[in-house]
Design a protein that fits this description.
about 55% helix; Aminopeptidase; 2 domains; single chain; alpha+beta; 18 helices
Protein backbone atom coordinates (compact mmCIF):
# COMPACT_ATOMS: atom_id res chain seq x y z
CA UNK A 1 0.00 0.00 0.00
CA UNK A 2 1.48 3.32 -1.04
CA UNK A 3 1.09 6.67 0.73
CA UNK A 4 1.39 9.86 -1.29
CA UNK A 5 2.39 13.12 0.30
CA UNK A 6 0.75 16.32 -0.81
CA UNK A 7 3.42 17.99 -2.90
CA UNK A 8 1.77 21.44 -2.72
CA UNK A 9 3.74 23.48 -0.17
CA UNK A 10 1.74 25.21 2.58
CA UNK A 11 2.06 28.97 2.46
CA UNK A 12 2.24 29.97 6.12
CA UNK A 13 1.49 33.61 5.36
CA UNK A 14 -1.76 32.68 3.64
CA UNK A 15 -2.69 30.43 6.56
CA UNK A 16 -1.92 33.12 9.16
CA UNK A 17 -3.72 35.79 7.20
CA UNK A 18 -6.84 33.67 7.01
CA UNK A 19 -6.74 32.97 10.74
CA UNK A 20 -6.25 36.64 11.58
CA UNK A 21 -9.11 37.66 9.32
CA UNK A 22 -11.32 35.10 11.09
CA UNK A 23 -10.36 36.08 14.63
CA UNK A 24 -9.61 39.80 14.38
CA UNK A 25 -12.34 40.59 11.83
CA UNK A 26 -12.63 44.38 11.54
CA UNK A 27 -9.29 44.82 13.35
CA UNK A 28 -7.27 42.68 10.92
CA UNK A 29 -5.26 45.58 9.46
CA UNK A 30 -4.34 46.96 12.89
CA UNK A 31 -3.37 43.50 14.14
CA UNK A 32 -1.08 43.00 11.15
CA UNK A 33 0.60 46.35 11.77
CA UNK A 34 1.06 45.86 15.55
CA UNK A 35 2.06 42.19 15.67
CA UNK A 36 4.35 41.99 12.66
CA UNK A 37 6.02 38.89 11.32
CA UNK A 38 6.68 36.25 14.00
CA UNK A 39 5.03 38.41 16.66
CA UNK A 40 1.67 37.42 15.20
CA UNK A 41 1.95 34.20 17.22
CA UNK A 42 1.66 36.29 20.39
CA UNK A 43 -1.70 37.52 19.18
CA UNK A 44 -2.99 34.14 18.01
CA UNK A 45 -1.86 32.24 21.11
CA UNK A 46 -3.22 34.74 23.63
CA UNK A 47 -6.20 33.79 25.82
CA UNK A 48 -9.65 34.90 24.75
CA UNK A 49 -9.86 37.44 27.58
CA UNK A 50 -6.48 38.95 26.70
CA UNK A 51 -7.25 39.08 22.98
CA UNK A 52 -10.64 40.70 23.65
CA UNK A 53 -8.88 43.26 25.85
CA UNK A 54 -6.82 44.18 22.80
CA UNK A 55 -9.93 44.13 20.59
CA UNK A 56 -11.74 46.46 23.00
CA UNK A 57 -8.80 48.88 22.98
CA UNK A 58 -8.65 48.79 19.18
CA UNK A 59 -12.43 49.28 18.95
CA UNK A 60 -12.24 52.44 21.05
CA UNK A 61 -9.17 53.90 19.37
CA UNK A 62 -10.15 52.80 15.85
CA UNK A 63 -7.47 53.42 13.26
CA UNK A 64 -5.88 56.30 15.20
CA UNK A 65 -2.62 54.50 15.99
CA UNK A 66 0.17 57.07 15.71
CA UNK A 67 3.06 54.98 16.94
CA UNK A 68 2.90 51.25 16.22
CA UNK A 69 5.90 50.48 18.42
CA UNK A 70 4.39 52.28 21.43
CA UNK A 71 1.08 50.55 20.82
CA UNK A 72 2.78 47.15 20.73
CA UNK A 73 4.54 47.86 24.03
CA UNK A 74 1.29 49.05 25.65
CA UNK A 75 -0.73 46.03 24.54
CA UNK A 76 2.04 43.51 25.21
CA UNK A 77 3.48 44.59 28.55
CA UNK A 78 0.58 46.34 30.31
CA UNK A 79 -1.86 44.45 32.48
CA UNK A 80 -5.31 43.90 30.99
CA UNK A 81 -6.98 46.23 33.48
CA UNK A 82 -4.49 48.97 32.58
CA UNK A 83 -5.28 48.53 28.88
CA UNK A 84 -9.03 48.73 29.57
CA UNK A 85 -8.54 51.83 31.71
CA UNK A 86 -6.56 53.39 28.88
CA UNK A 87 -9.47 52.60 26.52
CA UNK A 88 -12.53 53.42 28.66
CA UNK A 89 -11.17 55.63 31.42
CA UNK A 90 -11.91 52.93 34.01
CA UNK A 91 -11.86 49.15 34.30
CA UNK A 92 -14.82 47.85 36.31
CA UNK A 93 -14.28 44.78 38.46
CA UNK A 94 -14.68 41.52 36.56
CA UNK A 95 -14.46 42.97 33.07
CA UNK A 96 -11.34 41.01 32.12
CA UNK A 97 -12.92 37.67 33.02
CA UNK A 98 -16.22 38.68 31.40
CA UNK A 99 -14.40 39.40 28.13
CA UNK A 100 -13.29 35.77 28.11
CA UNK A 101 -16.94 34.72 27.77
CA UNK A 102 -17.29 36.44 24.41
CA UNK A 103 -15.58 33.60 22.56
CA UNK A 104 -12.56 33.78 20.25
CA UNK A 105 -13.70 36.35 17.70
CA UNK A 106 -13.58 40.16 17.82
CA UNK A 107 -16.85 41.92 18.55
CA UNK A 108 -18.16 45.27 17.26
CA UNK A 109 -17.37 48.38 19.28
CA UNK A 110 -20.90 48.71 20.69
CA UNK A 111 -20.63 45.29 22.34
CA UNK A 112 -17.49 46.22 24.29
CA UNK A 113 -19.06 49.55 25.24
CA UNK A 114 -22.22 47.74 26.40
CA UNK A 115 -20.22 45.32 28.55
CA UNK A 116 -18.34 48.19 30.16
CA UNK A 117 -21.61 50.03 30.80
CA UNK A 118 -23.30 47.02 32.41
CA UNK A 119 -20.37 46.22 34.69
CA UNK A 120 -19.91 49.87 35.68
CA UNK A 121 -23.49 50.78 36.49
CA UNK A 122 -25.39 48.07 38.34
CA UNK A 123 -24.17 45.37 40.69
CA UNK A 124 -27.06 42.89 40.15
CA UNK A 125 -26.63 43.08 36.38
CA UNK A 126 -22.88 42.67 36.81
CA UNK A 127 -23.48 39.54 38.90
CA UNK A 128 -25.75 38.27 36.13
CA UNK A 129 -22.87 38.65 33.66
CA UNK A 130 -20.42 36.94 36.01
CA UNK A 131 -22.71 33.92 36.44
CA UNK A 132 -23.30 33.48 32.70
CA UNK A 133 -21.29 30.78 30.94
CA UNK A 134 -21.38 32.72 27.67
CA UNK A 135 -22.59 36.16 26.64
CA UNK A 136 -24.51 36.97 23.47
CA UNK A 137 -23.99 40.33 21.79
CA UNK A 138 -27.69 41.20 21.63
CA UNK A 139 -28.16 40.29 25.30
CA UNK A 140 -25.33 42.61 26.32
CA UNK A 141 -26.78 45.52 24.37
CA UNK A 142 -30.22 44.88 25.89
CA UNK A 143 -28.82 44.75 29.42
CA UNK A 144 -26.82 47.92 28.85
CA UNK A 145 -30.05 49.76 28.07
CA UNK A 146 -31.35 48.67 31.49
CA UNK A 147 -28.27 49.75 33.43
CA UNK A 148 -29.59 53.30 33.89
CA UNK A 149 -33.13 52.34 34.89
CA UNK A 150 -34.07 53.38 38.41
CA UNK A 151 -34.82 49.97 39.90
CA UNK A 152 -33.65 48.93 43.37
CA UNK A 153 -31.09 46.15 43.74
CA UNK A 154 -33.63 44.02 45.64
CA UNK A 155 -36.10 44.11 42.78
CA UNK A 156 -33.33 43.58 40.24
CA UNK A 157 -32.20 40.43 42.02
CA UNK A 158 -35.73 39.09 42.36
CA UNK A 159 -36.26 39.46 38.62
CA UNK A 160 -32.88 38.00 37.68
CA UNK A 161 -33.70 34.85 39.68
CA UNK A 162 -36.51 34.13 37.23
CA UNK A 163 -33.95 33.52 34.42
CA UNK A 164 -35.90 35.46 31.79
CA UNK A 165 -34.30 36.11 28.37
CA UNK A 166 -32.46 39.44 28.32
CA UNK A 167 -34.75 41.36 25.91
CA UNK A 168 -37.87 40.42 27.91
CA UNK A 169 -36.02 41.09 31.16
CA UNK A 170 -35.31 44.64 30.02
CA UNK A 171 -38.97 45.17 29.07
CA UNK A 172 -40.06 44.12 32.56
CA UNK A 173 -37.39 46.31 34.15
CA UNK A 174 -38.77 49.27 32.20
CA UNK A 175 -42.27 48.57 33.52
CA UNK A 176 -40.92 48.26 37.06
CA UNK A 177 -38.98 51.52 36.70
CA UNK A 178 -42.22 53.32 35.82
CA UNK A 179 -44.02 51.78 38.81
CA UNK A 180 -41.18 52.22 41.33
CA UNK A 181 -42.05 55.82 42.30
CA UNK A 182 -45.60 54.70 43.14
CA UNK A 183 -45.15 51.25 44.72
CA UNK A 184 -42.65 50.13 47.33
CA UNK A 185 -40.17 47.32 46.79
CA UNK A 186 -42.24 44.83 48.76
CA UNK A 187 -45.17 45.03 46.32
CA UNK A 188 -42.90 44.88 43.27
CA UNK A 189 -40.93 41.90 44.60
CA UNK A 190 -44.16 40.06 45.45
CA UNK A 191 -45.45 40.66 41.92
CA UNK A 192 -42.23 39.16 40.51
CA UNK A 193 -41.97 36.25 42.94
CA UNK A 194 -45.59 35.17 42.51
CA UNK A 195 -45.38 35.38 38.74
CA UNK A 196 -42.08 33.61 37.96
CA UNK A 197 -42.86 33.59 34.22
CA UNK A 198 -42.56 36.79 32.17
CA UNK A 199 -46.23 37.13 31.16
CA UNK A 200 -47.46 36.36 34.68
CA UNK A 201 -45.01 38.88 36.16
CA UNK A 202 -46.22 41.52 33.72
CA UNK A 203 -49.85 40.81 34.62
CA UNK A 204 -49.01 41.08 38.34
CA UNK A 205 -47.17 44.36 37.81
CA UNK A 206 -49.98 45.86 35.75
CA UNK A 207 -52.44 44.67 38.35
CA UNK A 208 -50.85 46.98 40.93
CA UNK A 209 -52.38 50.01 39.20
CA UNK A 210 -56.07 50.80 39.90
CA UNK A 211 -58.54 50.58 37.04
CA UNK A 212 -60.00 53.77 35.59
CA UNK A 213 -63.68 54.44 36.18
CA UNK A 214 -65.93 52.15 34.09
CA UNK A 215 -67.75 53.55 31.02
CA UNK A 216 -71.02 53.09 32.88
CA UNK A 217 -72.02 51.88 36.32
CA UNK A 218 -73.87 48.68 37.18
CA UNK A 219 -77.12 48.20 35.26
CA UNK A 220 -79.12 45.54 37.06
CA UNK A 221 -77.32 42.25 36.44
CA UNK A 222 -74.66 43.90 34.24
CA UNK A 223 -71.75 44.55 36.63
CA UNK A 224 -68.40 46.24 35.85
CA UNK A 225 -65.18 44.41 36.75
CA UNK A 226 -63.23 47.15 38.49
CA UNK A 227 -60.04 45.49 39.81
CA UNK A 228 -57.33 43.19 38.50
CA UNK A 229 -58.19 40.63 41.15
CA UNK A 230 -61.87 40.61 40.09
CA UNK A 231 -60.81 40.07 36.48
CA UNK A 232 -58.46 37.23 37.38
CA UNK A 233 -61.15 35.65 39.54
CA UNK A 234 -63.67 35.89 36.70
CA UNK A 235 -61.15 34.18 34.42
CA UNK A 236 -60.91 31.26 36.84
CA UNK A 237 -64.66 31.05 37.34
CA UNK A 238 -65.31 31.10 33.59
CA UNK A 239 -62.28 28.93 32.84
CA UNK A 240 -60.99 31.25 30.14
CA UNK A 241 -57.78 33.04 29.18
CA UNK A 242 -58.28 35.83 31.73
CA UNK A 243 -56.97 33.48 34.43
CA UNK A 244 -53.42 34.71 33.83
CA UNK A 245 -50.51 34.95 31.43
CA UNK A 246 -50.32 37.02 28.28
CA UNK A 247 -54.07 37.41 27.77
CA UNK A 248 -54.59 38.72 31.29
CA UNK A 249 -51.64 41.09 30.87
CA UNK A 250 -53.07 42.30 27.55
CA UNK A 251 -56.51 42.79 29.12
CA UNK A 252 -55.06 44.79 32.02
CA UNK A 253 -52.95 46.97 29.73
CA UNK A 254 -55.94 47.68 27.47
CA UNK A 255 -58.12 48.56 30.45
CA UNK A 256 -55.57 50.92 31.96
CA UNK A 257 -54.97 52.59 28.60
CA UNK A 258 -58.72 53.24 28.34
CA UNK A 259 -59.27 50.97 25.33
CA UNK A 260 -61.31 48.13 26.87
CA UNK A 261 -63.49 47.42 29.89
CA UNK A 262 -64.91 44.13 31.12
CA UNK A 263 -68.32 43.41 32.64
CA UNK A 264 -70.11 40.38 34.04
CA UNK A 265 -73.64 39.49 33.15
CA UNK A 266 -74.97 37.65 36.19
CA UNK A 267 -78.37 36.72 34.78
CA UNK A 268 -79.62 33.20 34.10
CA UNK A 269 -76.69 32.54 31.73
CA UNK A 270 -73.53 34.16 33.17
CA UNK A 271 -71.44 35.92 30.55
CA UNK A 272 -68.19 37.88 30.35
CA UNK A 273 -68.47 40.99 28.18
CA UNK A 274 -65.70 43.18 26.76
CA UNK A 275 -66.48 46.70 25.59
CA UNK A 276 -64.01 48.55 23.35
CA UNK A 277 -63.69 52.30 23.04
CA UNK A 278 -64.66 53.68 19.63
CA UNK A 279 -62.67 56.90 19.48
CA UNK A 280 -64.46 59.79 21.17
CA UNK A 281 -67.89 58.53 20.18
CA UNK A 282 -68.36 55.90 22.88
CA UNK A 283 -68.08 52.13 23.35
CA UNK A 284 -69.04 49.02 21.40
CA UNK A 285 -69.75 45.53 22.70
CA UNK A 286 -66.82 43.67 21.14
CA UNK A 287 -66.71 40.29 22.91
CA UNK A 288 -69.09 38.06 24.81
CA UNK A 289 -68.47 34.54 26.07
CA UNK A 290 -69.93 32.08 28.52
CA UNK A 291 -68.12 29.57 30.73
CA UNK A 292 -65.17 27.88 28.99
CA UNK A 293 -65.60 30.37 26.12
CA UNK A 294 -69.00 28.92 25.21
CA UNK A 295 -71.05 30.92 22.74
CA UNK A 296 -73.78 33.17 24.11
CA UNK A 297 -77.36 32.59 23.08
CA UNK A 298 -79.30 35.25 21.20
CA UNK A 299 -81.78 35.35 24.07
CA UNK A 300 -79.02 36.43 26.47
CA UNK A 301 -77.65 38.94 23.96
CA UNK A 302 -81.13 40.43 23.64
CA UNK A 303 -81.39 40.75 27.42
CA UNK A 304 -78.02 42.51 27.53
CA UNK A 305 -79.10 44.83 24.71
CA UNK A 306 -82.25 45.72 26.63
CA UNK A 307 -80.18 46.54 29.71
CA UNK A 308 -78.01 48.87 27.61
CA UNK A 309 -80.86 50.46 25.67
CA UNK A 310 -80.79 53.66 27.69
CA UNK A 311 -77.12 54.37 26.96
CA UNK A 312 -76.67 56.35 23.77
CA UNK A 313 -72.85 56.02 23.87
CA UNK A 314 -72.88 52.19 23.79
CA UNK A 315 -73.51 50.22 20.60
CA UNK A 316 -74.39 46.51 20.45
CA UNK A 317 -74.07 44.90 17.04
CA UNK A 318 -73.90 41.36 15.76
CA UNK A 319 -70.77 39.62 17.00
CA UNK A 320 -68.06 39.05 14.44
CA UNK A 321 -69.49 41.45 11.87
CA UNK A 322 -69.68 45.15 11.34
CA UNK A 323 -67.31 47.97 10.56
CA UNK A 324 -67.07 49.28 14.13
CA UNK A 325 -65.97 45.95 15.56
CA UNK A 326 -63.42 45.51 12.81
CA UNK A 327 -61.94 48.99 13.35
CA UNK A 328 -62.19 49.37 17.14
CA UNK A 329 -61.86 45.87 18.55
CA UNK A 330 -58.86 44.40 16.75
Amino acid sequence: MHHYRNTTPIDRNVSDNSMIALVARQHSDQVHSIWKNDRICEYLLASDSRRHTWHAWLAIHGTAICDVADTYRLLTFSKSRQILTHAFGASPAGMVSALGKLGPYARPKHVYVALHQVLSACRPLADHIFQATEIQDDDLVSLASASTMLVSNRVFRALLKCKIPAPTLVELLWVIAQLAPIHDDQHLIRAVAQGRQAAAILANLLGLTPFPAPPFEQLGTLVPITTAEQLRKAGHEFDNCLRGGEELAYALASIQSGHRYFYRWIGDHPTILAFCRCGVTGWILAERSGPANASVSQVTVNQISEALAGLSNVFVGKEGTGLLEWVCAR
